Amino acid sequence: MAWGVLLVARPRQWIKNLLVAAAPALAGALDSAAAAADTLLAFLLFCAAASGTYLLNDIADAEADRAHARKRHRPIASGLVPVPLAAVLGALLIGSAPLVALAAAKPRLALVLVGYLALSVSYTYGLKHLPLCDIAAVAGCHVLRALAGGATTGVPITGWFLAVVSLGALLVVAGKREAELRTPASRRTRATLAYYTTGFLTRLRIATASAMVATYFLWAWTTPTGLAQVLTVASIVPLVMAVFRLHALVDRGIGEEPEELVLRDRPLQLCLAALGALVLLGVHVG
Q1: How far apart are CA 192 and CA 136, in angstroms?
Q2: What's the pLDDT band for 269 if we cut at 50, 70, 90?
């Protein structure tokens, strides 16, 4: 049962919470021990909050998960973890995350956590059944993760940052839905997929990808001239390659779990590593 509780907390998906480091990293703030500690706190609290919402989500989806070839092995759907235990643990994790943020004198982080939890719970009990609202809600959760880094370290969030993160989140979620639509088992367990077509989700994916790359390109040109600008503009190449790789995987029906792609797909990992290295070098040189 203990192993089942760990599995239902979905530690693999904690990689999403690394988004809390995006804003302070781009501001060069992580060189400060205090900012690094604040970012780590935000990461840990988002892991706790996210795991709490995953528990509630798996309780709500248990019946549907039993009809899915892969999800039927989830601990709650398979009966490994009792529903009452999962409900209590989920409530404890959800309630403790913002309280710990307040205890650590981080009221802005607590506010972002409350927003994230409200959106996640709304998704679990309603928004996931509404076409387009389900995509916007999941993307919104990613954006709130990114905002949390600025909230906890005091780094200002620019319009460029918010636009790129929002469009990138929509791209990933649109790709996720399209990959699910291409998987027969998922079509039977996610009701909103009945309202989508592959063509619509493909157009949505391409439109958001194009807008994100264009916005990123415009931001890169606004960086100070010199080596910093050269490095930042050069980072457009691995960004575009990462987008192309994501398109190729989704077209093959891969991408139902985006975090699995980041953990396992070597070409995507190399593109993201090159992107991160060039951007951070540009930040520190600048």
Answers
A1: 13
A2: very high
DSSP string, 169-189: HHHHHHHHHHHHHTSHHHHHH
Using CB atoms within 10 A of its CB, is residue 53 exposed (0-12), middle (13-18) or buried (19+)?
buried
How high does pLDDT run on average in the chain? 90
- Both structure tokens of 104: 């650590």
The two counts, helices (H) then strands (E), for the chain are: 15, 0
pLDDT digits (tens, 9 = 90+) for 107-119: 999 999 999 999 9
Q: Within 13 A of 53's CA, how many CA atoms are on the CB side? A: 23
Q: For the chain, report the end-to-end CA distance as a whole number of angstroms.
A: 51
Which DSSP letter does residue 74 get?
S
| Tokens coding 11 | 């530690």
Number of Cβ atoms within 10 Å of the Cβ of 5: 17
What is the rounded distance in angstroms from the CA atom of residue 143 to the CA atom of residue 165?
6
123-to-49, 96, 117, 187, 264 alpha-carbon distances in Å: 14, 20, 10, 18, 28
Note the pTM of the prediction, 2 decimals.
Answer: 0.90
Architecture of 1-157 per CATH?
Answer: Orthogonal Bundle (1.10)
8 A C-beta contact, residue 224 and residue 138: no
